[in-house]
Design goal:
heterodimer, A: six-stranded antiparallel β-sheet, B: mainly beta, two-stranded antiparallel ribbon, elongated
Chain lengths: 159, 224
């Protein structure tokens, strides 16, 4: 009953299946596992116009991690990134400027995000709100609520 | 990934040509009717799924398929199965399992007796549960994170175009494969997943993907 063409078909189909199984079996390594930081940019208002304006930061540290500085002695900084704490629903940061010190708190929902089988999960955040003091800072505005690894600007700080 | 997909498509097309010509060396390869044809109800199972499990134990499942001849070149098709992925890694545990159902039809492009190359369409739906009982992430500045995501039910629909081949191996016993192009419908993305696993659809980072399955069938003849 089996004819040569059918045998050929079996061989061809089996070869294709084996090929695909081989491809599927090649597990890759996690070459890069990104982290999701909140992007912060600094602005000021001059004659009614909003302009990007750098600020001198002497120290920047997280509340609860005062022993570890995120930034130090950064003059005229226009943008920076802040790591949110996945073990809490709020993170606070102390900004030490030349003449003032301000604190900004961010409240959020932690969103574990599955990147791939090789890399596993990273943590994203959905910003819910901010609280802040007003020494050098005038106001803080959320422009993008989702903090992901895509380097978006999430926060505008007006000073 | 694109290069691999292109390579696979090229290979399948290359191999599909002798598939079609080999069974009918003296006939017009474009001829559709005029050869022996046995109507029937055909049942089959997906051979590639247990083979996948052998290659990748974290994934397992089964699929049964059936088609019913509506004429020499037309077939109604129904496919159903169960699929699960259980990833137990040092930094996370992710469990997903659920059911899927596809329905549609095939139209023959080339037929020689009961051997067939066909194209078809399918509508698919999957209902599955996802659970991440352990997640560990190194955060750097704030120290390590340990958490979990509660179990949740999901449902998704998709459409497929299918290139199918079935060849009679013995009397009423067939082998065959399907190459499927799949597109999620009403896709809202997933705030928790970049690489999504959807039973019957597969693993995908976007709303479309390719699939390939290898089948064995038995046909119950229903007369001529």
């Amino acid at each position: 009953m089996i004819k040569l063409p059918v045998v050929y078909r079996i061989i061809s189909a089996t070869a294709m299946a084996l090929l695909l199984l081989t491809l599927g079996g090649c597990r890759e390594e996690c070459h890069y596992k990104p982290r999701s930081y909140a992007g912060v940019e600094f602005f000021t208002v001059i004659d009614g116009a909003v302009v990007e304006a750098g600020i001198d930061i002497v120290e920047l540290k997280g509340i609860g991690r005062e022993d570890s500085l995120l930034y130090s002695n950064r003059p005229n900084i226009r943008s920076l990134t802040l790591p949110m704490d996945g073990n809490s629903d709020e993170s606070g940061f102390i900004f030490v400027f030349e003449e003032n010190t301000d604190t900004i708190w961010f409240s959020y929902e932690v969103v574990p995000f599955f990147l791939s089988q090789e890399c596993g999960f990273i943590l994203n955040f959905d910003l819910a709100g901010t609280r802040y003091t007003t020494g050098a800072i005038d106001s803080v505005v959320i422009v993008t609520r989702k903090i992901t690894s895509f380097d978006d600007t999430n926060i505008r700080v007006y000073h | 990934m694109t290069q691999i997909s292109g390579f696979i498509i090229s290979l399948l097309l290359l191999l599909a040509v002798p598939f079609g010509l080999a069974g009918a060396p003296d006939e017009d390869p474009l001829e559709l009717p005029g050869t022996e044809y046995t109507p029937g109800l055909r049942f089959g199972f997906n051979v590639s799924r247990p083979l996948w499990t052998f290659a990748e134990p974290a994934r397992m499942g089964f699929e049964i398929v059936s088609d019913f001849s509506l004429g020499p070149e037309y077939f109604g098709v129904a496919e159903a199965g169960y699929s699960m992925r259980d990833l137990d890694e040092p930094s996370y545990r992710l469990k997903e399992n659920g059911l899927f159902l596809r329905a549609g039809g095939d139209r023959g492009l080339y037929r020689h007796n009961d051997d067939l190359i066909a194209v078809g369409v399918r509508a698919g739906v999957a209902l599955w549960e996802r659970d991440a009982p352990m997640i560990f992430v190194e955060q750097g500045y704030w120290g390590d994170y340990t958490g979990s995501v509660d179990s949740e039910l999901f449902i998704r629909q998709w459409a497929e175009v299918v290139l199918a081949l079935k060849a009679e191996l013995f009397s009423n016993v067939f082998i065959g494969w399907n190459l499927r192009g799949k597109l999620l419908l009403f896709d809202r993305g997933d705030s928790h997943m970049n690489e999504r696993y959807i039973p019957g659809f597969g693993v995908a980072e976007t709303s479309s993907t390719l699939g390939f399955d290898f089948y064995l069938y038995y046909r119950f003849p229903l007369g001529n």
